[in-house]
Design a protein that fits this description.
Layout: H1 9-18, E1 23-25, H2 26-38, H3 43-54, H4 62-67, H5 74-85, H6 93-106, H7 109-128, H8 139-143, H9 150-162, H10 184-232, H11 238-275, E2 280-286, H12 292-300, E3 318-323, E4 326-330, H13 344-349, E5 357-363, H14 375-379, E6 385-390, H15 398-406, H16 421-435, E7 441-445, H17 447-452, H18 462-469, H19 471-483, H20 486-496, H21 498-567, H22 573-586, H23 589-625, H24 647-659, H25 677-681, H26 688-777, H27 786-792, E8 793-799, E9 803-808, H28 816-826, E10 829-834
Parallel strand pairs: 1-3, 2-4, 2-5, 5-6, 6-7, 9-10
Antiparallel strand pairs: 3-4, 8-9
Helix pairs in contact: 1-2, 1-3, 1-5, 2-3, 2-9, 5-6, 5-7, 10-11, 10-20, 10-21, 10-26, 11-21, 11-26, 20-26, 21-23, 21-26, 23-24, 24-26
């Protein structure tokens, strides 16, 4: 039955805003629940807010909620959702995107900007005057000052309670205090805070330098191409230069797209590290229903309904819990079904950067290799790993519960068919494949037993249940992570892991440098090969042209001349000349010569085309083998040019130009007869036949002599014309290659410059991280500065996430045992030696 109760859409919008950054803080969820009570929200509204927190498929969409708010309430609604966005002091891109979307629906974008400007001005004033009363208010509460509705007044109160400086102060200690036993806790937290602030400055500086380098790379490629275009504008054919620079511009755009992606990733990484700056963060990860939320409730002591609102026990967003500078993050299940938007795995991955330790939860009932593939993401960011093996046993059955309590060690036995030994070995084997080492701890625990120890119906056996669950082993490991390793793991997050964020764009730039260098080498080699092959084709063409012309003249000399002489032996010179020209026309002599010329030229064209197409295929293969994306196609389906210069496309463009190559026609053949015909046919005492024979022989000899002379002239003229055309083809090809090489060198030099800069940033961070490692081993603390690093660290060689060799300038004594411990703590192979030792 559908409820007739009206929905409080302003409260629905607030629920959406809480979920906007995809991290639902436990206090935010609790505040929303209390807020609903304070404004007397009806059950339908409460149910709908719970659906939003759980990301139920039937939830009221953001658009529908915004449209449900009356025009008169929209400005106040803008202030309400902005106050929620600003409550943690960080207006994230996802939150901004949601607020702008709502403002667009409301039609009050200008008002939104007005409120944001007001908030930012307040933030600036607070930083200048921390003693003022207004600075003690949460920024979110200030945004709502003057709002009159019951919801806004209640929201002001709640925001004051859940602002960052207030989070966790009134939360009951309960079981979580197990983590905090010992006087050393406060000292560690203080030192973690001091180190984090210093390390963040190095991380921020390094990330910003990388951002600047990538941004400069984008700008420099553009500038260099413009200079090259101006320098080359007068060379060769204008269409040639135009085509080249269209290709290079396509390359620039494609590179720019990739650079922008890398820049955005770096910026988000920096924001994540800033967000977690004041906390030691532990993220719970694992497949769906592995027990992460149960573990979250055990550790935080918040109860199983405190994770969400109502009875929601699962989450599609990261849930955050904070107290005493510890931050617990419960992530969505890896491998959960997708229903649009970001996958659960992507949501979980979004907190890896800011986490100091990852607790990966697996179960003994189904250990499959597929669920360990996620560990690759952790290794890529050098995150320390603890694996909790949740032993599943249906203790809700009274008989099984009794059996368990009678022998609580049995489920934890390693040996035997049902023992944990096989499970642990599989975990190590699978994790080794994706995490690259097995330095992590595997801690078995029975989360259900720990959960039941907190339930009222098991009050009488709660201590026994808690002890038997062995959850204390896990809690102790977390405590050790913080108290004993907290300082170095904070440095690992802010320095060591940041190197990974920088190495990714560095690897990308390095790969591009290699591709362009390989292509430059291939271009130079292919230019030499092509020109040599075209030159050989030209020689063959000239030789063929000469031979074919000789064959035509030989045929004329052997056949046509003899019959002509017999038929025209009585003609005077003028008539004979006319008859000879007519004879040449009848036998299509000039056409035969021209056809030979065209056929030879056509054969040269075909050979040139084959040479160029072969080169295009070779260059494409080189690019593919180099990992590039150079293709023959001119454009993608969206009209954009693919990454890289389309060498194949350009070479085929040259080939198409050759198709229009038309050799000049040889000059017209006009044979002039020399000699006196009358003297040839004179002689009164000779017979008619003798006169005809002698005259014909004279004419034949004269014509053959003239044909030999003209054969040489025609052949030389034809060869000269064809040679000029072939030379132009070679010049065009050489010019194309010259332009291509210049363009590739332009991009390659800029990529190389950026590569050197980013590698320098990587080295800078690794040296700072190495200094922190040395100080940790020596149990000393020195403020981290550039001078201190230069004084102590000689050299660092690091295979990110796998090994790190540190050479110190002084003869520090780091025991082998300590170096072995570093492997377990940092989960990389760490070797430390003085610079003058081997």
């Amino acid at each position: 039955m559908i409820s007739n109760e009206s929905i409080d859409y302003q409260l629905i919008l607030i629920a959406h805003m809480i979920c906007a950054d995809q991290q639902i803080h436990s206090e935010e969820a609790k505040a929303l629940h209390e807020l609903a009570e304070q404004v007397n929200a009806n059950q339908r509204t409460i149910d709908e807010t719970e659906k939003i927190l759980a990301q139920d498929k039937t939830l009221i969409s953001l658009e529908d909620a915004a449209k449900g708010i009356k025009p008169s309430d929209r400005r106040e609604a803008i202030r309400q959702i902005l106050s929620v966005a600003y409550v943690d002091g960080f207006f994230s891109p996802l939150e901004k995107e949601m607020v702008e979307k709502i403002a667009k629906i409301f039609g009050c974008f200008d008002y939104l900007q007005e409120v944001i400007d007001e908030a930012e001005q307040f933030r600036a004033n607070c930083s200048d005057d921390e003693t003022s009363d207004s600075s003690k208010l949460s920024l979110g509460a200030v945004i709502l000052r003057g709002a009159e509705s019951v919801l806004s007044r209640s929201l002001v109160k709640k925001l004051g309670q859940i602002a960052p400086e207030e989070i966790g102060r009134k939360i009951e200690k309960l079981q979580r205090e197990i983590l905090l036993i010992g006087a050393e806790y406060n000292a560690v937290i203080q030192q973690c805070g001091d180190i984090a602030k210093e390390d963040y400055q190095f991380a921020e500086r390094s990330l910003n330098r990388t951002l600047e380098s990538l941004d400069q790379l984008k700008s420099n490629i553009q500038k260099r191409l413009l200079v090259l275009q101006k320098q080359s504008s007068g060379k060769g054919k204008s269409s040639s230069a135009k085509e080249i620079f269209e290709q290079l511009e396509g390359t620039r755009k494609a590179l720019t797209t990739e650079i922008i992606k890398e820049i955005e990733v770096l910026r988000e990484s920096l924001k994540a590290k800033q967000r977690a700056l004041n906390h030691f963060s532990i993220a719970f990860m694992g497949k769906t229903k592995a027990g992460k939320s149960t573990l979250h409730a055990i550790v935080t002591g918040g109860g199983w309904e405190a994770i969400g609102v109502g009875k929601q026990r699962t989450t599609r967003y990261n849930r955050v819990y904070e107290w005493k500078n510890i931050r617990i993050i419960d992530t969505p299940g890896i491998g959960a079904p997708e229903d649009g938007g970001r996958t659960d795995e992507e949501v979980a991955q979004s907190v890896i950067d800011e986490s100091d330790v990852i607790c990966y939860v697996v179960t003994n009932d189904s250990i499959q290799e597929s669920e360990f593939g996620f560990l690759k993401s952790l290794k890529e960011k050098t995150k320390p790993l603890v694996i909790l093996l949740n032993i599943k046993n249906n203790l809700r059955d009274a008989r099984r519960l009794q059996h368990f309590l009678s022998d609580p060690n049995k489920p934890f036995t390693l040996e035997g068919k049902s023992g944990l030994g096989g499970h642990i070995e599989r975990i190590k084997r699978y994790a080794q494949q994706h995490y690259a080492n097995n330095y992590f701890d595997i801690i078995p625990a029975m989360l259900l037993a720990a959960q039941m120890s907190r339930e009222a119906e098991h009050e009488s056996i709660k201590d026994k249940l808690f002890e038997s669950s062995r959850i204390q082993d896990f809690l102790d490991s977390i405590r050790v992570s913080l108290v004993e390793y907290g300082t170095i793991r904070r440095s690992q997050t802010l320095l060591g892991s940041t190197v990974g964020n920088i190495e990714k764009p560095c690897q990308w730039v390095t790969k591009e440098v290699q591709i362009y260098q390989k292509l430059l080498q291939s271009l130079r080699e292919k230019r030499t090969t092509v020109l040599r092959k075209v030159e050989l084709a030209e020689q063959d063409a000239l030789s063929s042209l000469e031979n074919h012309i000789a064959e035509v003249f030989q045929d004329m000399s052997n056949n046509t001349v003899t019959s002509f002489a017999r038929d025209n032996w009585k003609a005077d010179q003028s008539i004979m000349k006319l008859n000879w020209e007519k004879k040449l026309k009848d036998i299509k002599f000039s056409e035969r010569i021209s056809n030979i010329y065209q056929e030879v030229g056509g054969e040269f064209k075909r050979e040139a085309l084959e040479i160029l197409e072969e080169v295009g295929r070779d260059l494409q293969l080189v690019a593919e083998l180099s990992g590039g994306s150079f293709k023959f196609e001119n454009h993608d389906t969206d009209g954009s040019v693919r990454l890289g210069i389309k060498y194949g496309g350009i070479l085929l463009t040259i080939a198409s130009g050759i198709m229009y190559f038309t050799p000049l026609a040889p000059f017209a053949l006009a044979v002039g007869l020399i000699g006196t015909v009358m003297s040839i046919i004179g002689g009164l005492f000779k017979s008619e036949e003798q006169k005809r024979r002698e005259a014909a022989d004279k004419i034949t000899g004269s014509l053959r002599t003239q044909l030999q002379t003209q054969q040489v002239e025609v052949s030389e003229k034809a060869k000269d014309d064809l040679g000029k055309s072939c030379k132009q083809v070679r010049t065009d090809i050489d010019h194309y290659f010259e332009e291509l090489i210049a363009g590739v060198e332009t991009i390659s030099s800029e990529l190389r410059k950026s590569q050197i800069q980013i590698q320098g940033v990587t080295e800078y961070l690794n040296r700072a991280y190495a200094k922190r490692i040395i100080d940790y081993c020596l149990k000393t603390y020195k403020p981290l500065t550039d001078d201190v690093i230069k004084q102590d660290i000689a050299k660092v060689d690091r295979r990110f996430g796998r090994s790190m060799q540190i050479q110190t300038k002084s003869k520090v004594k780091i025991s082998e045992k300590m170096q072995e411990n570093l492997k377990q703590i940092l989960q990389e192979d760490i070797i430390i030696r003085a610079a003058d030792t081997k």
